[in-house]
Specification:
alpha/beta, two-stranded antiparallel ribbon, 13 helices, globular, 8-stranded parallel barrel
Length: 289
């Protein structure tokens, strides 16, 4: 496998994971993009503190904005103003969010993009969400419409951007989705979501929540058993399958985004070990230097 697939990977953390990030900092390349989730129960101060910590530790903060969790336009302005004041507003990820009903005026991510507030507060790069295996609460047709509309909006406002996908255990639907995305004219780079090494039971819990396929055949492909939930597994097989069939001409620019589930150091160490294991062997001239 070509380890270049893991060049410029990104990581995800919550606002409460700052101590874990400090523990893992030596294992993460400087300048790595680190997304900071927008969870229920976390206040603006917690999110801003996390973004500041990511920047202080030498990484690129990518704060999330969950449209349906925003109670008001002033709340959005407060968050963006805080990011701007801290110098952490350059990159954000805008997602619709989990609530069945919006907690304020924003129905979806596109509604946030259309406020004009992002540019006004110094945002230059916007990530948007992609769902290769669909979404349990949204039809495929609506998902494609939303994604293409958001891509058009980013282009119109001259934002840099990328698409970050929900994680999965099977490379086949991801590759098919990438082809479908390019066929629809979306040329944004895609960061394919991958679970970091984690307990099988925990992975299956997240998969159930997000509608990710976990059939017996998919489990075997990924490398875990549905009848033995006590082990831990990493995305080795998934990445191999993705790399073996990845074709830039058909799939466009692809990078990897790791969902760490709180295991920042374990994920960073796993990535380093995986890259070392698959690094090209030195040529004779190099080994003799």
């Amino acid at each position: 496998m070509n380890p270049a697939l893991l060049d410029d990977f990104s990581l995800e953390m919550t606002g409460k994971d700052v101590p874990r990030l400090e523990e893992a900092r030596g294992d993460i390349p400087p300048g790595t993009r680190i997304n900071i989730t927008f969870l229920a129960g976390e206040d603006t101060a917690t999110r801003l503190t996390a973004a500041r910590a990511v920047k202080r530790l030498g990484f690129v903060p990518v704060p999330h904005i969950s449209a349906r969790r925003l109670p008001s336009r002033p709340a959005l302005e407060e968050f963006l103003s805080g990011l701007a004041a801290d110098g952490t507003a350059g990159n954000v990820f805008v997602v619709g969010g989990d609530p069945a009903r919006p907690e304020g005026p924003y129905e979806d991510a596109l509604a946030v993009l259309r406020t004009g507030l992002l540019r006004r507060h110094g945002v230059r790069h916007v990530g948007i969400a992609g769902y290769p295996e669909g979404h349990p609460g949204i039809t495929d047709r609506d998902l494609w419409t939303a994604l293409t509309d958001k891509a058009v909006a980013l282009d119109a406002d001259r934002f840099g951007g990328d698409v970050i996908t929900q994680f999965g255990f099977d490379a086949d639907p991801v590759l098919a989705w990438l082809e479908a995305l390019r066929a629809r004219g979306v040329r944004l780079p895609v960061r394919v979501g991958v679970p970091g090494p984690a307990g099988v039971r925990r992975l299956l819990g997240y998969a159930t929540r997000f509608g990710v396929g976990t059939s017996a055949s998919v489990a075997r492909k990924y490398g875990f058993s549905l009848t033995n939930l006590m082990g831990t597994t990493g995305p080795d097989r998934f990445l191999h399958a993705l790399a073996d069939r990845y074709d830039p001409g058909r799939h466009g620019e692809v990078k990897i985004h790791f969902y760490t589930f709180g295991g920042l150091r374990a994920t960073a160490e796993w990535i380093d070990g995986f890259r070392r294991q698959h690094a090209p062997a030195p040529t004779p001239s190099q080994s003799n230097r």
